[in-house]
Amino acid sequence: MTIKAVLFDIGGVLFQIHDLTPHRQWATRLGISEGLLIEIIFNNPVAQQATVGEATTEEVWNEVAKRLALPPDDLEALKVDIWKGGVWDTELLDFIRSLRPQYKTGAISNAWPDAREGVKEYVNSDIFDVIVFSAEEGLKK
User: Fold this and answer.
1) What gap in Å lies between CA 141 and CA 137, rounded to an integer?
2) Which of 77, 136, 64, 75 is nearest to 107 (CA)?
3) C-beta neighbour count of 35 within 10 angstroms
4) pTM for this model (two decimals)
5) 102-119 confidence digits (pLDDT tens)
């Protein structure tokens, strides 16, 4: 069998959170575990709906604010801080770029509706032939 295409996951592969300090700081501030903080943000029912395009990112963050009783300024800070410590694997992205045109390349992610805009600097048609986000397809991987 001949390999014709190579597919890469975005979250956890191309983009990884290396420094969990901001997560720990928020968890401590809120008096909850880091695991519960991540659960509240990414696995609440509205977030799950957003992952398949049935809710907006704004609706997700409104749900997070409600569950954590956060005022608007704190919610805005959390939105920024939750991604701090994240690193794009630029070496892997360069490798993927080198695979073209010999192989078709693809990126896939379970992600909320605005993900494409948020990652376009690193995940775009210059590197990938196909880019699939669950919210745009209405289906999780």
Assistant:
1) 10
2) 136
3) 10
4) 0.90
5) 999 999 999 999 999 999
